[in-house]
Write a structure and sequence with these properties.
Layout: E1 14-17, H1 23-33, E2 37-42, E3 57-59, E4 65-69, H2 70-74, E5 79-83, H3 89-100, E6 104-107, H4 121-127, E7 132-137, H5 152-158, H6 179-202, E8 206-211, H7 212-218, H8 222-230, E9 246-251, E10 254-259, H9 263-272, H10 287-292, H11 294-305, H12 310-319, E11 324-326, H13 337-341, E12 345-350, E13 354-359, H14 383-391, H15 395-403
Length: 407
C-alpha cells in the first residue's frame, strides 16, 4: 500500500517578501520551509544587501571564492527571486499587482518609506482586506525611536544584553550570534501564522508589527525579571547567576561544561570527583549556599577535574545522569551524529558551488514536515517566471520592462 503523501503546513499561502538583510528574510525562509510560495523582490543589479556582505564568500566547485556572501544562503532558501525596481511607478504597480494576489507581505523598511510607492499597509489593505502585512523594523511602528535604523549589534547594546554578558569587569560583550535578528525573524513568522489563523476564523487580515528591540528585550527572560521584580542586575557570564556548579571547567586536555540545577545532582558530582565530604559542607550543601560560595567551589572542582581528560569526565557524568558536555568548535559539528540524526544539515545542488549547505529548520512536524524545495536563489533567477505565471505577462512585455530597467 502506497504511503499517504504528507502535505506542507501552509501550502497554498503566497508571500511577497520585500525584506533584506537577516531578520525579515529569515521570517520568509521559515514560511517557505512550512510550504508557502515566497516571492522575494530584489533591486535589479544589486539585490539584497547581504548578497555582498562578505567575507566569507561562497566557493565554487573548484574551491575558488565567488562574489556572493555565505550570509545570503543562510536565510533565503525556498524563495523565488524577482528583480523589480519599485522606485519607478511601473515597478511599484507590478509589485502592487503581485500583492493583490498574495496572502502575506513581509517588509523591513523604515516606517513610512513604502507609502511613497503605495506599498504601505493602509494602501494595500484597502483593496485586499484579507492581506497580512508584517513589518520588521528596529524599533517598531510606534515610539520615539520608530524612525531609527536598527541592527542586531545595536539591539544587543540598547536592550541591555551586552551589559550582562561576559565576566564581571570584562566590559560590554556581544553574543557571537545575531540573536536579535534571529528572535525577530522567529517572532515575525509566528505573528504571520497567528494572523493567518485569525483570518481563517474572521476573514480579516491585519498588520503585524515586529521590532528587533522588543524581541531582544523579551529574550532577557530571568535577567529582566530579576531587575524589574527585585532590583538585582544579573551578570550572565559562563557561570549561572542562580545555580552552582553551572559553567565551564578546565580538564587535563581542554574544557567541559557542567550544568547542575539541583542539590541531588551536586551530590553525584561530588561523589564522581571523590569529594563526598562536600555533601555536608555548609558552604555547598544547598544551591543557594553554593552560589554564595561559588568561587571556592569552582576552584576546588577545577583542581579535581584537571587531573584527567575531558572524555573521561564526560563518560563519568553521563553515566551518573549529570548534565555535562564538550565545547565543540563549529568544525566539529560536521560529523556530529546528533546533527545528522536530526537532519539539521540541508544540502542543495548548485551549478556554481556543487552544493550549498544550510542549517535545517528545527521544527519537526509529524504530518506536515518542513519542505526544502528550492535552494537560495540567484539574483533575479525567477523574474520572468513570476511575471509570466503570476501576472500573465508575455515574453515581449517582459522584454520591454527589462529594456526600461524596471526589472
Amino acid at each position: 500500500m502506497q504511503a499517504e503523501k504528507k502535505g506542507s503546513a501552509i501550502e497554498g499561502i503566497k508571500v511577497v517578501d520585500l525584506t533584506r538583510v537577516i531578520a525579515g528574510p529569515l521570517a520568509g525562509q521559515i514560511l517557505a520551509d512550512l510550504g508557502a510560495d515566497v516571492i522575494k523582490i530584489e533591486r535589479p543589479g544589486t539585490g539584497d544587501d547581504v548578497r555582498h556582505l562578505g567575507p566569507p564568500w561562497l566557493k565554487d566547485s573548484a574551491g575558488r571564492f565567488i562574489d556572493e556572501a555565505t550570509y545570503f544562503s543562510a536565510v533565503n532558501r525556498g524563495k523565488r527571486s524577482a528583480t523589480i525596481d519599485f522606485s519607478q511607478s511601473a515597478g511599484a504597480a507590478l509589485v502592487r499587482k503581485l500583492i493583490s494576489r498574495a496572502d502575506v507581505v513581509l517588509e523591513n523598511f523604515r516606517p513610512g518609506t513604502l507609502s511613497r510607492y503605495g506599498l504601505d499597509y493602509a494602501s494595500l489593505a484597502a483593496s485586499n482586506p484579507r492581506l497580512i502585512y508584517c513589518s520588521v523594523t528596529g524599533f517598531g511602528q510606534t515610539g520615539p525611536l520608530r524612525e531609527r535604523a536598527g541592527y542586531d549589534f545595536l539591539m544587543q547594546g540598547m536592550a541591555g544584553v551586552m551589559s550582562v554578558t561576559g565576566k564581571p569587569g570584562s566590559g560590554p560583550t556581544r553574543a557571537g550570534l545575531p540573536i536579535a535578528d534571529y528572535a525577530a525573524g522567529l517572532t515575525a513568522a509566528l505573528g504571520v501564522l497567528a494572523a493567518l489563523n485569525f483570518r481563517h476564523v474572521t476573514g480579516r487580515g491585519q498588520a503585524v508589527d515586529v521590532a528587533l528591540f522588543d524581541c531582544q528585550v523579551s529574550m532577557l527572560l530571568n535577567v529582566f525579571s530579576a531587575w524589574f521584580n527585585s532590583g538585582v542586575q544579573i551578570q550572565q557570564a559562563n557561570d549561572h547567576p542562580s545555580a552552582c556548579p553551572h559553567g565551564v571547567f578546565p580538564t587535563a586536555d581542554g574544557h567541559i561544561i557542567i550544568a547542575t540545577m539541583s542539590d541531588a545532582q551536586f551530590v553525584r558530582v561530588a561523589d564522581i570527583l571523590g569529594r563526598p565530604e562536600w555533601h555536608a559542607d555548609p558552604r555547598f550543601a544547598t544551591n543557594g549556599n553554593r552560589v554564595a560560595h561559588g568561587a571556592e567551589l569552582v576552584e576546588s572542582m577545577s583542581r579535581e577535574l584537571e587531573s584527567r581528560g575531558s572524555e573521561y569526565w564526560l563518560r563519568e557524568f553521563e553515566a551518573a545522569n549529570i548534565p555535562a558536555g564538550p565545547i565543540n568548535q563549529i568544525s566539529e559539528l560536521s560529523d556530529h551524529p546528533q546533527l545528522h540524526a536530526r537532519e539539521m544539515v540541508v544540502s542543495f545542488p548548485d551549478p556554481r558551488t556543487g552544493d550549498i549547505k544550510a542549517a535545517g529548520n528545527p521544527l519537526k512536524l509529524s504530518e506536515s514536515p518542513v519542505d526544502y524545495r528550492l535552494p537560495p536563489p540567484k539574483l533575479g533567477q525567477h523574474t520572468a517566471a513570476v511575471l509570466g505565471e503570476e501576472l500573465g505577462l508575455s515574453a515581449d512585455e517582459i522584454s520591454t520592462l527589462r529594456a526600461r530597467s524596471i526589472i
